[in-house]
């Protein structure tokens, strides 16, 4: 049995597709295309299918070929991939400083509701 390649870092288009596929858990190219059409009516089925095939070859998706229509699923859980991408961003753009990342995010503008949620989260951390 051939070993799947280690998943690579997704492109922006691949990440968009994963954002659609994660809530579904798994799906055919048709199912994913139908979901994408809700927000991006310009995307063709052929584009979605080709992107999913590329993502499978890169190790970003796994594919069940037992049915007539192949069923694809993310190779990594959403939280796992997001954590990996965040660590990479902190290293590359903020010299390894999570504090610098957080400060940059806060300076870029957050809503009052988001600020309150962050404050509550920090208060909860202080109690531990």
UniProtKB/TrEMBL annotation:
One Pfam family of this protein, by short name? Penicillinase_R
- What's the superkingdom here? Bacteria
Keyword Transcription annotated: yes
- What are the alphabetically sorted keywords of the record? DNA-binding, Transcription, Transcription regulation
**In its keyword annotation, does this UniProt entry include Transcription regulation?**
yes
Checking Gene3D superfamilies in the record gives: Penicillinase repressor domain, Winged helix-like DNA-binding domain superfamily/Winged helix DNA-binding domain
Stated family: Belongs to the BlaI transcriptional regulatory family.
- Name of the molecule in the record: BlaI/MecI/CopY family transcriptional regulator
This chain's source organism reads Massilia aerilata
Q: Identify the taxonomic lineage of the organism of origin.
A: Bacteria, Pseudomonadati, Pseudomonadota, Betaproteobacteria, Burkholderiales
